[in-house]
Amino acid sequence: QVQLVESGGGLVQAGGSLRLSCAGSGRTFGSFGRGWFRQAPGKEREFVGGISWYGESPYYIDSVKGRFTISRDNVKNTVYLQMNSLKPEDTAVYYCNDYYSGFVPVNYWGQGTQVTVSS
């Protein structure tokens, strides 16, 4: 399985920005892309956005569109999540993972990185 390591989380005030990084080489066999997921306290883990292996434009859920940007550096084998205009409701543990068609995540999770947005 592909080993992915998330970093870049922290505590930020509402309206602030953070950039998360996901480092890891290779890709899960049969996966469609690599993306970001998050899990807030007491809630199910949800898909946030992803970037496919095939050059398509990144996809985002509605609640982060226009605020979050996913990019990939193929030389560094790193996927980034730039988060701007952060809101308290963005508070969660953020994970990166490969996903299959339909944004179904690979069934293996790293430790994630905590993002806390204060109001």
Structural class: mainly beta
Mean pLDDT: 95
Shape: globular
In DSSP terms (H or I, runs of 4 or more residues), the helix count works out at: 0
Distance between the termini: 38 Å
Main sheet: strands, sense, barrel: 7 strands, mixed
Low-confidence stretches: none
Residue share in helix: under 10%
SSE string, helices as H and strands as E: EEEEEEEEEEE
Architecture overview:
Helix content is 0%, strand content 49%. By secondary structure, it is mainly β. Strands 2, 4, 5, 6, 9, 10 and 11 form a 7-stranded mixed beta sheet that branches. The protein has a 4-stranded antiparallel beta sheet with strand order 1-3-8-7, with no helix packed on it. The model has no long low-confidence stretch (mean pLDDT 95).
Summarize, please:
By secondary structure, the protein is mostly beta strands. It contains no helices and eleven strands.
What keyword list fits this structure?
119 residues; mainly beta; seven-stranded mixed beta sheet; four-stranded antiparallel beta sheet
Topology, pairings included?
Layout: E1 5-7, E2 10-13, E3 18-23, E4 33-39, E5 46-52, E6 59-60, E7 68-73, E8 78-83, E9 92-100, E10 104-105, E11 113-118
Parallel strand pairs: 2-11
Antiparallel strand pairs: 1-3, 3-8, 4-5, 4-9, 5-6, 7-8, 9-10, 9-11
